[in-house]
Design goal:
The chain is an alpha/beta fold. The chain has nine helices and eight strands. It has helices spanning 2-20, 38-46, 57-70, 90-96, 106-118, 142-152, 177-192, 211-216, 226-229, and strands at 28-32, 51-54, 78-81, 99-103, 123-128, 158-164, 202-204, 221-224. Strands 7-6-5-4-3-2-1-8 form an eight-stranded parallel sheet. Bound molecules: pyridoxal-5'-phosphate.
C-alpha cells in the first residue's frame, strides 16, 4: 500500500509541476513517520523514500538506532526534525538529524549552534515561520524573522538552508495558499535585504492536504505523512 500511495503522490507532484512549469525532480518528499512503526518506515524506504521526518527527538532516536542496526542493507537516509524543540534536547537532536526544520527562535538557534560546535558538526537548519494565526503553532513571527535570521547566519556551526511553515487546518486547500505565499514573500524580502545570497533558501511547505497548492506557490520540500501511510 505504501508503495502504491507513493506512486500516486509522485504522479500528483508531476502533474502539478508540469502545470506550474516546474521540474518535479526539484521537489523533495520528506516522509513524515511520527507514530509509524519501523516496518512502515522500512517499507517507505524500500519504495524509494530517502528523507524521513520526525517530531520528537526521543521517538526518532529509537527508530534511528533500530534502522542503523539493519546497517547497509538500507540506503542512506536523511533525518528531518519537524517538531518543536526544547533547548535541553538540542544535543541529542544535533546527533541524529541532518536537517532541523523547526528552529523557531534565536535562543534555540544558539543552543543548537553550541551543541553542533561541541560535536564539530555543521548543522543544516530551516527557520520555522508562523504564518498561521493559530496560537498552537510555533515559529517566528514573519515580522521578526528577518531580524532573527540576520543574527542566526552569524552562528558558525549552523548552515541556514531555508524556511519552513505549517499552514493552518482548512477545509479547502486553496485557503492555505496565502500562508504559503507569505513564506515565499518573506524569502524574497530576506534576499532583498541582502541577509543571505539569492537562491540559498529552500521553502519547506505543504502536507498531505495541501501539498499541491504549496508546490504551486514555490515549495521545494513537502512533508507528507497520511497520504503516504494511510488507506484512503
Ligand atoms: C505531522 C506533520 C506533517 C505531516 O502531516 P500529514 O498531514 O500527515 O501529511 C508535516 N509537517 C509537520 C511539521 C508535521 O508535524
Amino acid at each position: 500500500m505504501i508503495k502504491n500511495n507513493l506512486q500516486k503522490v509522485k504522479e500528483r507532484i508531476s502533474a502539478v509541476c508540469s502545470n506550474a512549469g516546474r521540474d518535479h525532480d526539484s521537489i523533495t518528499i520528506v516522509c513524515v513517520s511520527k507514530g509509524r512503526s519501523l516496518e512502515q518506515i522500512k517499507e517507505a524506504i524500500e519504495a524509494g523514500i530517502t528523507d524521513i521526518g520526525e517530531n520528537r527527538t526521543q521517538e526518532a532516536a529509537v527508530k534511528y538506532k533500530e534502522l542503523s542496526a539493519i546497517g547497509n542493507r538500507l540506503p542512506v537516509i536523511k533525518w528531518h526534525m519537524l517538531g518543536h524543540l526544547q533547548t535541553n534536547k538540542a544535543r541529542e537532536t544535533v546527533k541524529i538529524f541532518d536537517l532541523i526544520q523547526s528552529v523557531d527562535s534565536l535562543h534555540l538557534a544558539e543552543a543548537v549552534n553550541k551543541e553542533a560546535l561541541k560535536l564539530n558538526k555543521l548543522q543544516d537548519i530551516l527557520i520555522e515561520v508562523k504564518t498561521s494565526p493559530e496560537a498552537s503553532k510555533s515559529g517566528l513571527k514573519p515580522e521578526e524573522a528577518a531580524g532573527a535570521i540576520r543574527e542566526i547566519v552569524k552562528l558558525t556551526n549552523l548552515k541556514l538552508k531555508g524556511l519552513m511553515t505549517i499552514a493552518p487546518l482548512v477545509d479547502n486547500p486553496q485557503k492555505a495558499r496565502p500562508y504559503f505565499r507569505q513564506l515565499r514573500d518573506l524569502r524574497n524580502k530576506i534576499y532583498e535585504l541582502g541577509i543571505v545570497t539569492y537562491g540559498q533558501l529552500i521553502l519547506s511547505m505543504g502536507m498531505s492536504d495541501d501539498f499541491e497548492v504549496a508546490i504551486e506557490e514555490g515549495a521545494d520540500m513537502v512533508r507528507l505523512g497520511r497520504v503516504v501511510f494511510d488507506e484512503k
